[in-house]
Amino acid sequence: MAADENPDSTQTAPTPEEVGASYDRFGDLYGLILGDSAIHIGMWSSPGERAPASTLTDLANLAMDRQTDFYIDALGPGPGDHVLDIGCGTGGPAVRLARASGARVTGVTVSASQVGLCTARAEEAGLADRVGFRLGNAMDLGEDHADASYDAAWGIDSFPHMSDRLAALRHAWRVLKPGGRLLFTEFTRRGEPSAEHLAVYRSVWTSPPPQDTATLLGWTAEAGFELIRLENHTSNVAISGELMHFLYHDNHARIAERYGEEATAEMDAAMLALRAFIGRHLGYHVFLVAKPR
What we know:
Blueprint: H1 16-34, H2 56-75, E1 82-86, H3 92-101, E2 104-109, H4 112-124, E3 131-135, E4 150-155, H5 165-175, E5 176-189, H6 195-205, H7 213-222, E6 226-232, H8 234-250, H9 252-259, H10 261-281, E7 282-290
């Protein structure tokens, strides 16, 4: 509706000449803030997908759900399979996998609080009979995870935390049945990050320095796995790094209230350095391997 058709409006509609002049002047700016493949709003949220996304947090949740679905398809569990979720986080992917595939899932995490959150999530989803969680160390799974007891396993962003990836891979190999698949993600090193960047990565992500892809491939082979697929998803970690930066600043007041001014000031500097480290030196790869039959 034109402005002069609305009796409540005190503004006039722009003329075609004004529209053209605006694009002539600010076209480069639109390319910088919207993208340069076109000049329109992208489809960040598909119709009927989850709840409509209207905030950066909504978009982050959509991205993680899409990622989980991609991994479910790649791993390929079926009804009745038993899947080990190594480093299960807050339980969302385990519940999503069980619902989509009909498989049983056992999640392990080193965080006691996460076990409670995961259990509540499975109960809320009505899947507590097929999805359970335990406190455990993936680098030493122990006797409660028997040899050849799982049909498949995955570790989404959990292997980068581990000080001994080879031990974790060997335990995964031990508990998988012959022919069982393991999907895991790894933050990989690009270039030569500074000691300062690596210290910030360790502090914020609670992880040892990222390894190069060749080293990680060597460990999977040494653990006894055969490589099925290796994909470079570095673009996703780059976008996530930018999203973390903006969400951190959007929630800065809440963060300061929760952690205090002094701790928040330290985090301010760390998040700035982490953003630079992710953009310049952090890669992201998805490994799909199998235990030989």
